[in-house]
Every structure is written in C-alpha cells, then in structure tokens.
Amino acid sequence: MQIDLIENLLIFTRVAETRSITRAAARLGLSKAAVSVRLKALERELALQLVNRSTRSLTLTDAGERLLDGMDRMLADAEETLAGLRDLAVEPKGRLRVTASIGVGVSFAAPLIPGFLDRYPDIELDLSTSQDIADLAAQGFDLALRFANIVRCTDMAWPVGRVDWRLVASPAYLARRGHPREPADLASHRCLIYGWQALHDPTWSFARAGLQVPAPVKGALKANNGEILLQAALAGGGIAMLSGFSCDRHIASGALVALLADWTIEGSDAETIYAVRPWSPRVPRTVKAFVDYLQAQRPGA
Predict the structure, then answer these.
(1) Comparing C-alpha atoms, which of 120, 101, 115 is closest to residue 270?
(2) Quick one: CA torsion of 179, 183, 189, 195, rounded to 10 degrees?
(3) What angle do CA 223, 227, 233 make, to 5 degrees?
(4) Lower CB count within 10 Å: N or C terminus of the chain?
(5) Pair 100, 144: CB distance under 8 Å
(6) What are the φ and ψ backbone dihedral angles of 254, each rounded to 5 degrees?
(7) What is the pLDDT of residue 56?
(8) For residue 80, what pLDDT band results from cuts at 50, 70 and 90?
C-alpha cells in the first residue's frame, strides 16, 4: 500500500471522527487546506464521495461510513499487533491471580508453581482454591483451572492436563476387607463417594474389551472434595476413585494400592483440566506464560 494512501486514510479517519476539517487539522498539526486537499485526493483514488460538505456541517456518505468502520477495525488490529510486539521485548511480570478447585490447586497446580516462578521471577502468583465456580471478572481473577468436558463458547480455554482416574485403597483397608477382583465386588466394600455422585444412587462405571459394566457402590463418607477422599483412603477409610495426579505418588510409595487396574474407569468426571478465562482480544503475557508452562510440564494434555 502506498505511503500517501495510508496517510490519506488516517487523515480521513480523523476527519470522520471529529466531523470537522478544522478540528481534524488541529489534532493532526496540519493546515485546513492540507487536510482538505488530502481528503479530496483520497476520494479521487477511490472514485467515491466520502463526505458531504456544507458551510455549517460535515457528514459521511454511506461509503464514508463503511470506510470508517473498516479503518476502526484495521487500527484496532494494528494496536493489538503492536501491543503483542511490545510484550515480546520484555519478560512477563506483574501479579497473576488464579482460582482452582481444592484438588486441582493442591495436587495439580501447586507442585508446578515453584518451577514456574523460578522461570519467571518477576511474576507474583496468587492461587485461590474453592469448590465454588468463581466469577472471574467480578472477583478479579485472571485465570481458572477447571475440570471440564465442555467449555462455554464465550470463554477462552487451553487444555493443560489430562485426567486419568484410579481406584485405590490403603494396604490396611485391603488387609481387613480383601481385594475386589471384579467391579461387582465393590458392592460389598466401603466406598468413598464424591459429592455429585451422592445426588443419585452412586454407580461407578467400568469398561474392558468393549464390555461396559456399571457397579453400584455405597459408603458412609461422601465429600465434595477429592483431597478429603484421598486422606480418608490413606487412613484406611475405604475405596476411592481419584485422579492420577492426586494419588499416583501414593501408589508409588505403597501408601495406596491401585485396584481393578485391568478395567478402564468411565464417566467418573471430566477427562481434561482446562485453563479458562473470559474471551478477550488480547491475552495478558502473565496468563500466556503460565498456560504455556503448564502445557510444557504436562505434554499429554
């Protein structure tokens, strides 16, 4: 695009915004005659009349309105591009406020945060955990980490972790009650049940070799927090269905035993952890840095 044409388009935009050649000239630091000449040159270039001139007012033609709309979009895109380029010149810094459920915050995010802060020493990260779904904009959060199968179309979302589910119990519990060998055996065991499952007749679902098997379960403890179920399982309280990121280290240490490992657990909960924020035309550098770091640490996401 020719430099003169670009300059003429910018002059037209200022005239259209102010609805005055005089005010546009003052803002641009040009004479009224120069602005008028450049505006007429643009109209000749486009072979269109862009403004209706009179001694008392200036209005846009339909073509002028369309051109102004296009220039507004183009200038917004240019500003966004320039802002992104400015971001590249400096390391991310500032405060990053993140919300997560207790289980995701404690077992998934917390072990990764020290490495992230080592990588980005100018970022201060506030992590708030709650079982309630936060209103990010109203409560001032930059990002949420959530289990999800479906993400709202009004949100921006990045997968940052895959969730593999395990059935576990402590050696002490299994010494007292024995090992379940098939999903149907769970009916005679004390199970630790997540809150949403307790709203209905609790049933865990399993699959193997194309066969799907529902397994009704029962138990005296029901909780809306996976960390409570984890601690109860560690204490010998029963059999729990837990995410791998919360219990795999305990399986490795021998504190918990994986059960029915040749069966796939189905329909227990979401299979993905997403980093979520309301849609915006530009993602803050602190948010992008954190999301990129989580994805790099969990390549299976």
Answers:
(1) 101
(2) 130
(3) 80
(4) N
(5) yes
(6) 90, 0
(7) 77
(8) confident
Token pair for 138: 């109203």
Q: Among 3.40.50.300, 1.10.12.10, 1.10.10.10, 3.40.50.880, name the CATH number for the domain at 3-88.
A: 1.10.10.10
Q: Which residues pair with 214 in a beta bridge?
A: 205
Strand ranges for the chain from DSSP E:
51-53, 58-60, 94-100, 123-129, 143-148, 155-162, 165-169, 191-194, 203-208, 211-216, 222-223, 239-243, 257-258, 264-266, 272-278
**What number does CATH give the domain 165-266?**
3.40.190.290
Q: What is the pLDDT of residue 152?
A: 67
- Which pLDDT band, with edges at 50, 70 and 90, does 173 fall under? very high
- For the entire predicted model, the pTM comes to 0.62
Range from 119-123, 194-198, 221-225, 227-231 carrying the lowest mean pLDDT? 194-198
On whether the CB atoms of residues 247 and 227 are closer than 8 A, the answer is: no
The dihedral built from the CA positions of residue 197, 202, 206 and 210, taken in this order, carries a sign that is negative
Average pLDDT over residues 203-210: 89
Could you tell me the two tokens for 173?
A: 């519990």
Give me the residues paired with residue 58 across strands.
53
- Range(s) within the chain of domains with CATH label 1.10.10.10: 3-88
Contact (CB, 8 A) for 57 and 18: no
CB 146 within 8 A of CB 274: yes
